[in-house]
Write a structure and sequence with these properties.
The chain is α+β, with helices and mostly antiparallel strands. Helix content is about 25%, strand content about 15%. Strands 3-4-5-6 form a four-stranded antiparallel β-sheet.
Length: about 325
């Protein structure tokens, strides 16, 4: 055979092979025209992370960071809680993380620590007496007249259940002598889902005890006299606390046999023989815990009745 004819034959064979491959490819495309990247990823799982199609659902935005140094900081209630509710705690914001090296922690969310300078400034002139004269200088006479120093006080952070039965944050200021007691008591109340409507610094009410009671706020330190007297209250020393005060009012008795209820709009709850929620009596868990920690209860007083009030005498 002529070499030229042989070359022509091989060229024709090559062309026929190419036509066969192209035709087969076209046939496969026609049979699999819906084949996608997702299908390919399913067929090739080891490469799926490279080829998987992007999700149509947007990724959740990261939670905003909490600036504990800002007075507008918002504290998230509880890790893992289904609650969307948040609460602003002034004392928490002002103390921030400044004194964690001096913090005593019982459990997550339950701790006490000294008052930062920011928190001291916040309460001065409100729950704590101002100790500067008209010139703005510290007055030694005023300092001497105050029976408790900032160093004697502690900031206490707690958790509690509110009246909706949801976890909430709370805070108070007390004498350092009872800070451990209060932290332990509120921890036990929380573990038993005991309900407190709110636990905020009395300074949120401009130091007005009546306004705090009317709002059913549980509070402790407030440098003030006993109502109607010039004698300092145990609250002035941070050694007394009022629990759910609207439902457990303060009652004084007049010479004519009549009584005065404070707050006045809580008179319904002056009848302690009646049954109603949030009532403190000797069967109440709150009473039992405070008694175990050496506190006395205003509900046992004879000259008056202060059903919200627990206090402790310390040396």
């Amino acid at each position: 055979m002529n070499p030229i004819d042989r070359n022509k034959i091989w060229k024709m064979v090559g062309i026929l092979a190419l036509i066969t491959v192209v035709a087969g490819g076209l046939l496969r495309v026609s049979q699999h025209n819906s084949y996608t990247l997702g299908d390919y990823a399913s067929d090739n799982p080891t490469l799926a992370y490279q080829t998987a199609e992007p999700s149509l659902s947007p990724s959740p935005s990261p939670a905003p960071a909490i600036d504990s140094s800002s007075t507008d900081s918002t504290e998230i209630l509880q890790e893992g809680s289904s609650m969307a509710e948040t609460t602003v705690l002034t004392g928490y914001s002002l103390n921030g993380e400044l004194l964690t090296d001096q913090r005593t922690t019982l459990s997550d969310g339950f701790y006490y620590e000294p008052l930062s300078e920011k928190l001291q400034r916040y309460i001065t002139g409100v729950s704590y007496p101002a100790t500067v004269d008209n010139s703005g200088e510290a007055s030694q006479d005023l300092l001497k007249s105050v029976e408790i120093s900032y160093d004697d006080l502690r900031y206490v952070h707690i958790r509690h259940y509110n009246f909706e039965g949801n976890p909430a944050e709370g805070e108070l200021i007390c004498n350092k002598a009872i800070a451990q007691d209060l932290t332990e008591i509120f921890y036990e109340l929380y573990c038993n889902e005991y309900q407190l409507e709110k636990v905020l610094l009395i300074d949120e009410y401009d130091g007005d005890d009546l306004a705090s009671m009317e709002d059913n706020n549980t509070s402790c330190f407030n440098y003030r006299p006993v109502e109607g007297t010039s004698s300092l209250s145990k609250h002035a020393l941070g050694l007394a606390i009022d629990i759910n005060p609207f439902y457990n009012p303060y009652i004084t008795y007049n010479k004519d046999g009549s009584e005065k209820v404070s707050p006045a709009n809580a008179s319904t709850y002056a009848d302690r023989a009646a049954s109603f929620p949030y009532k403190i009596d000797e069967n109440d868990l709150c009473y039992q815990l405070f008694k175990e920690h050496g506190f006395t209860w205003g509900g046992h007083w004879n000259s008056c009745k202060d059903y919200q009030h627990f206090q402790k005498v310390v040396e």
